[in-house]
Design brief:
The chain is built from eight helices and six strands, in the order αββββαααβααααβ. It is mainly alpha-helical. It has one domain (36-280). The strands form three sheets. It has a two-stranded antiparallel sheet. A hairpin with a 4-residue loop joins β1 and β2. α1 crosses α3 (122-131), α2 crosses α4 and α4 packs antiparallel against α5 (195-212). The longest helix has 24 residues, at 248-271. It starts with 35 loop residues before the first helix and ends with a strand. The protein binds FE2/S2 (inorganic) cluster (FES).
């Protein structure tokens, strides 16, 4: 029979208080430049937010009517104050918000969906928790805060809303795709093609690559199944979504840059600072 082990006896096991940090004097033992990635992330995300805010409050130069280009940040244009021609689908005016909301920039109304989608995205969460909140700034670097409650409390509990923003992002992706096709209307009627159209198509493709690679999309498409063999279509879709999901971070950055460039291009054309280069008509 084994004798009971008591604390302090020679046979006592080592302490199991493993939740305490080891007594290391240095803040971190990492000697590489671990701070470069969070710093670059901070600069990139901050620049995107600043551009978005400036553009949203600008409330002009979002529709180049002669070449049928609408800026992504203002599409769909839902305000009663939208300039003529910017809020039509298939030639018909779309329903717009009440007149008393006309003081709100149309971009503000639209950016809630893609903004909320990106803000609650699993990848962006990781990146801004690290670069803005230092929680933690990098692997093997201590958290910048004394306590850690994860996403179990208000307001981070609301990050769970991401799966619903995904459906809004499907709508946004569809609208941007429609806008790209709309820009194929020629200046003199019929079909035309300009650099602006190519930019809008590239942007729509990157937005779809980011949206369909979403973790929520992967779960919606292939989750909660007992046997893939009984669902060959969903299995096929899950495989495609998983390929996109594997590069979700890259799609997140590529689509973020492309939406800014597309918006800036249309802004310059709509303001008259630039002429859309036409390939034909
Ligand atoms: S996890 Fe990134 S968009 Fe859903």
């Amino acid at each position: 029979m084994t004798a009971p082990v008591t604390a302090g006896s020679p046979a006592a096991p080592p302490s199991t208080a493993h939740h305490d940090r080891a007594t290391i004097q240095e803040n971190t033992l990492r000697t590489d430049r671990w701070w470069v990635t969070p710093l670059l992330t901070f600069i990139g995300l901050a620049a995107f937010v600043v551009y978005g805010l400036v553009r949203a409050f600008m409330n002009k130069w979002y529709w180049a009517g002669d070449v049928h280009l609408i800026a992504p940040f203002y599409s769909p244009c839902l305000s009663q104050s939208c300039v003529s021609g910017s809020s039509h689908i298939l030639g018909q005016p779309i329903p717009r918000l009440p007149d008393w909301l006309s003081w709100v920039s149309p971009a503000m109304m639209v950016l809630i969906l893609p903004g909320g989608f990106r803000l609650t995205c699993y990848y962006y969460r990781k990146s801004y928790y690290r670069s803005f909140w230092f929680s933690p700034p990098a692997c093997a670097v201590p958290d910048g805060h004394k306590t850690y409650s994860g996403e179990t409390r208000f307001p981070l509990l609301f990050q769970n809303i991401h799966r619903y923003f995904f459906y809004g992002a499907l709508f946004v992706g569809s609208v941007l795709t429609y806008d790209a096709f709309l820009s194929l209307s020629g200046k003199d009627g019929g079909i035309g093609l300009g650099v602006g159209s190519i930019i809008l198509f590239i942007n729509a493709a990157l937005i779809w690559a980011y949206t369909l690679g979403c973790h929520s999309c992967r779960n919606i498409v292939g989750g909660r199944l007992k046997h893939f063999s009984s669902h060959p279509v969903r299995y096929w879709m899950w495989g495609k979504v998983s390929v996109l999901n594997g590069k979700h971070q890259q799609w997140a950055w590529a689509s973020m840059v492309s939406v800014v460039l597309a918006d800036a291009y249309v802004m310059l054309v709509a303001s008259g600072a630039l002429t859309d280069v036409r390939i034909f008509n």
